[in-house]
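Support request, please re-run this one:
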Amino acid sequence: MAPFIPQGLINPELSLFFALILGLGFGYILEQAGFSSSRKLAGLFYGYDFVVLRVFFTAGVTAMTGLVFFSYLGWVDMNLVYVNPTFLWSAIVGGGIMGGGFIMGGFCPGTSLVGAVIGKLDAMVFIVGMFLGIFIFGHFYNAFEPLYTGSFLGNPFIYETLGMSKGWFALLLALMALFAFAVTQLIEDKVNKTQPSDMTKRPSYVVPAFLLAVSLLLFLFLPGERSSSYRETGPGALLQEWQSGSHLADPQKVAYDIINGNDQVLYIDLRAQEQYQRFSLPGAVRISPEEVLGPQWRRFFRNDPRQKVLYGDGTSLPARTWTALRRQGHQNVFVLDGGLNGMFDLLFMEREDQQPHGDNGYMNAFSERFIREARQFFLEGGAVKAAESRPVPVRTMIEITAPDIAGGC
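Re-run finished. Output below.
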């Protein structure tokens, strides 16, 4: 549910409501799958019931397949999906403790809640143990912290670690799940001595398995990037923006914002790294034109509310980058009109044809005065001189001594 909230598909004010509905649905599915029975859950380790493996594999493959295609279609932004960081030793130790408890009692933290809801006493005992473990961990956290935060590996994906593409990993995982289903069914039938007549009564999963494998196989032949998304700006709207010039940022307005320190505007330098290091607008960040559509910047352009002004030496490169960003649906993106060359011409080239005249005399005079101040700002670091301090009156201390007067009246 989480990726749909930032994209506006779900009202954030109703997030708790949807969380409640999803939680109830998840608990119902676990209970119907038999996860409220410790005997059924522990059967995985004794070979007589593999329902846990089937349910977990089914849930994982279904979620993976949905995310793969929804991400490709643009319905889910994977950059908004939180991936738990990997701490190697705490994961190994925690997995061992949880696995040992699972074997002995048949419950994990989630399934113990499912069992407790329907009145299972052993599940309630597990919940008490869970809270006792939370208390011990919290109380002695300083002692556990080196283990808990040790061997940090970041947020790796398995397919990246294995050096394969996301599509190939999804296909291989689905095939591995189907193979595991078949093998565990054979083991379960052998341990339980299932009669052949009972085997024939089972529903066939050949068709769903075939459709799953074919759909993931087709994903491998899809283009690397989707050609359209519901977020994209249509060609008609894009052409209208271009013709109206509403995408252009006026150089005088840019200079004014820089002088006054407007923090609601961000300047993006699309030039080469050498040019950026030699000179850039104050506070500008450099993004390569090849990277603006990449996943590392997609979330930035989508969620940062500031106006983003693209600039280069001229207008050609920023205009192409603006078109790509607006086509992808990003808002508040503009192009510096004329680029840096046009802005410098405005500030530093002497113009004799813009003398005050006619009805626009006052506006031209104001514009010329501002350009002179902006020129001074970029050359000397300040457009307006600091106001002089108010004069302080000079106070001269005169020591007065009493006169030596003899006598009196």
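Residues 166-192 form the longest helix (27 residues). The CA atoms of residues 87 and 150 lie 6 Å apart.
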